[in-house]
Design goal:
Structural class: alpha/beta
CATH topology: Rossmann fold
Radius of gyration: 19 Å
Distance between the termini: 49 Å
Shape: globular
Strand content: 25-35%
Number of domains: 1
CATH class: Alpha Beta
Low-confidence stretches: none
CATH superfamily: P-loop containing nucleotide triphosphate hydrolases
């Protein structure tokens, strides 16, 4: 199982500091949600955890800061946000790309690789799409296929950037449940999210970013407070409870009279 830790992690892009001195330790068996308004540095943090952007400070994976990219890819699967599929590959072949970190150059997939691809497609309900040209998929179908590719990668940590974007309500809930199950099976799951209520119900821990700084880190109840939502997102929210867990619904901005 994989542990990822950062020490005073900072990132500068285009001459602007977009991440400031973030220090966290992310342990196996937890679902960690990364929240914040647009431009807060959420996606930059996700990429920095994997060494995909030049950073200051230190990132370690299982205590090591010297892992090569191929070794990181074998340990940590990654689903970036908003990917576009340009090549007319079948869905099955797109998912199979997740096995590349495990294959020697010019080698073919073996039985274990094919089994991983089948299992990943089944888990996100895209088996029926296996022969479809991936460039013809809807946004929601594409999102699920790309998640299947990440799952096929087979790492014991999973970093996913807006995995619920473009999904209809049913598939969004199913993917949330899948990520929850991955964490309960021992995987470290780091998910960039926007749905506050779903984050409160599905995550063990939340990291709240604002202008590149980590302003809150803890349980959903400790992070998603009225004061934090007002200060970071500029909103008021309704808080409630359901049989499935806490409910958080944005209802206005501070200063607006309640309706």
């Amino acid at each position: 199982m994989v542990t990822i830790a950062t020490d005073r992690l900072s990132v500068t892009l285009g001459g602007r500091r977009v991440l400031h001195d973030v220090s966290v330790t992310l342990a196996p068996g937890s679902l960690v949600g990364v929240l914040g308004p647009n431009g807060a540095g959420k996606s930059t943090l996700a990429r920095a955890l994997l060494g995909l952007v030049r950073a200051q400070g230190r990132v370690t994976i299982d205590g090591r800061a010297d892992l090569r990219a191929a070794e990181i890819a074998r340990r940590v699967a990654y689903l970036p946000q908003g990917q576009v599929l340009h090549w007319p590959l079948s869905v099955e072949r797109v998912v199979a790309l997740g096995r590349l970190p495990h294959l020697a150059p010019m080698s073919r997939m073996g039985d274990d690789d094919r089994a991983a691809v089948e299992a990943a497609m089944a888990r996100v309900d895209v088996v029926r799409l296996r022969s479809r040209d991936a460039t013809t998929l809807s946004g929601g179908e594409r999102a699920r296929v790309l998640l299947a590719r990440a799952l096929a990668q087979g790492g014991t940590a999973l970093v996913v950037d807006e995995p619920l974007a473009a999904l209809d309500p049913r598939h969004g809930l199913e993917v949330a449940a899948l990520l929850r199950a991955e964490a309960e099976a021992g995987t470290l799951v780091v998910a960039v999210l926007h749905d506050l209520g779903l984050a409160a119900r599905m995550c063990d821990r939340l990291l709240l970013l604002d202008e590149g700084r980590l302003v809150a880190d803890g349980s959903p109840a400790a992070v998603l407070t009225p004061a934090n939502l007002a200060a970071v997102f500029g909103i008021r929210a309704w808080f409630g409870e359901s049989a499935e867990g806490p409910m958080i619904v944005p209802v206005g901005v501070p200063g607006d009279p309640p309706h």
